[in-house]
Amino acid sequence: MGQGFSLGKLGQWGRSPLLGIVLAVTFFPAPPTPAQTISQRGMVTAAQPAAARVGIEILKKGGNAVDAAVATAFMISVVEPYAAGIGGGGFALVYHAPSQTIHALDFRERAPLQATPTMYLNEKGEVVPRASLDGVLAAGTPGTVAGLATLHQHYGQLPWSQVVAPAIQAAQQGFAVTSRYRQWATMRQSVLQQDATAARIFLRYGQVPPLGTLIRQPELAKTLGAIARDPKSFYEGWIAGAIADFMAKQGGKIRQEDLRTYTPLWRSPICGTYRVFQVCSMPPPSSGGVALVQMLNLWQLLPPTSTPYDRGHYLAAVMQIAYADRARYLGDSDFVPVPVTTLTSRRYAQQRVTEILPRRARAQEAVAPATPIQLAESDNTSHLNVVDAQGNAVSLTFTINGPFGAGVVVPQTGILLNNEMDDFAIAPNQPNLFGVVGIQANNSSLANGIAPGKRPLSSMSPTIVLRDNRLHMVLGSAGGSRIITTVLQLFLNVVDLGQDAATAVSHPRIHHQWAPDTLFVEPTIPRPWLKTWQQWGYRVEQTRPWGNASLIRVLDQGQLEGAADPRGEGVAVGW
């Protein structure tokens, strides 16, 4: 693309709503630009400072990027319980420097074997409110422990027990409540109050604990201790028995057979090219890689932009197309045919880019998913990045889905369960927690419909960028359906706008996901831009800042440059 625009130095502006523009929230301070972190021998970025420090200590003790990533993820499972944990699942990309290859591991949650397509509908076929969000019925079979164990088995150097040990200590000693913890606990307070074990651990006398309160989790420490001795205990030992017994008593669907048969899957990453860069991310059941490559392909075919208005319009237009295709075609490729090759092809981008008109928004119904002829072919989450001294890298995103997941803790284990079943399309055109929908055509089945053992579609997009087959960038974000567009803009901020890591992650964002037919913008984007986009036909909604991204970049001199999102509490720690 041509000239870019910069939002980094824009000031705050007034509180008055704009005519014709929906302002969900009318004022927010601009996120500060985080301090730039430069290191020589290794770097870890994570959404929680204590977790990042654990990762860097593992590198200093002789561990590699995978050892550090596993230790960081286990620590996040203790100190960031509202976002991710061993009761959830995720995805990881690994760059293996000696072979200059990228490997993708899917440890996404699975639907229980007793799951049915109509499990969240009543006898009239209507969606039961919040059934897929709150309580044991919302939980899918967790994959985090198996995923981290598989990563370590294939690439780790240090003993398994050593990388789990810091998390055990943190669970025993406790962590201090932060403002971010209070924010999410307040949002989910009523749900946490309904589960005696969750309320005892995460609340105080039924209320959100004050800042600085120590959250100790001795039962989770016991569980992590068993995992440190043998990760299979989560799936076959007493832990599995505790989960299955609790589910049976409470009306959930996870059984010991679900846990015993759970297996992480190595998959081929989705890769595309942008200028001299190779951009790789996760394949289905993540929608991240397909949508990211599809948007980059479209973006490269659009004309250079001379104004920030045009740049924002074109970004929104490519987002609309990718998310329309996501709603129709993307799901677990082990269960449904997903036209990955076509959706990520340059030829397909050339067909679709002609639909994008200068300075004119297109309504949702005009941005249809690809037709069968075109396709003929054979949000709460945590992200971390690690690069070690040998140039190995890990980009890992994992989650329990919504804040505090299902709001339910398995007694005697400390395991907070996910509410990942909400990421399925529980009914056609029924928006999930993040507003995205699944659609069907010609009476076909939903690509992301519920089926026993199926993995729900995800937006998690751990991403690794190479240049001449060598590591150039490691990035990703939290943020539900906005993860993919956050990663897109983060990458373009660095490559197109020439921003350093700190400026790139603090840069304000826009987002369009086709349904709802709304251009979402962060609060520091100036009023004239919003008015212009509204005049071009967009329904613009200004909301609070979103995402929790981080980035590590390899500089020309071989140094590592990193930054974590000022919207969250994360840090970049170098060595």
Task: Give structural attributes.
575 residues, alpha+beta, 16% strand, globular, disordered N terminus
How do the helices and strands line up, and which of them pair or pack?
Layout lengths: L21 E2 L13 E3 L3 E4 L2 H12 L4 H15 L9 E8 L4 E7 L36 H12 L4 H14 L1 E2 L2 H9 L1 H5 L2 H7 L11 E2 L2 H12 L3 H4 L1 H13 L5 H5 L4 E3 L2 E5 L2 E5 L6 H14 L6 H22 L10 H4 L2 H8 L27 E7 L5 E7 L9 E2 L4 E2 L46 E5 L2 E7 L6 H13 L5 H6 L3 E2 L7 E3 L5 H9 L4 E3 L7 E5 L5 E5 L6 E4 L1
Parallel strand pairs: 1-19, 18-19
Antiparallel strand pairs: 2-21, 3-11, 3-22, 4-5, 4-12, 5-8, 6-7, 9-10, 10-15, 11-12, 13-14, 15-16, 16-20, 17-18, 20-21
Helix pairs in contact: 1-2, 2-3, 2-4, 4-8, 12-13, 12-15, 12-16
Provide a descriptive summary of the structure in words:
- With about 575 residues, the chain is of the alpha+beta class.
- The chain has 18 helices and 22 strands.
- It has helices at about 50-60, 65-80, 145-155, 160-175, 180-185, 190-195, 195-200, 220-230, 235, 240-250, 255-260, 290-300, 310-330, 340-345, 345-355, 485-495, 500-505, 525-535, and strands spanning about 20-25, 35-40, 45, 90-95, 100-105, 175, 215, 265, 270-275, 275-280, 380-385, 395-400, 410, 415, 465, 470-475, 510, 520, 540, 550-555, 560-565, 570-575.
- The protein has a seven-stranded antiparallel sheet. The protein has a seven-stranded antiparallel sheet with strand order 8-5-4-12-11-3-22. A four-stranded mixed sheet has the order 1-19-18-17, covered by helices on one side.
- β13 and β14 form a beta hairpin.
- α2 (about 65-80) packs antiparallel against α3, α4 packs antiparallel against α8 and α12 crosses α13 (about 310-330).
- The longest helix has 22 residues, at about 310-330.
- It is globular and about 60 Å long.
- Residues about 1-30 and about 370-380 have low confidence and may be disordered.
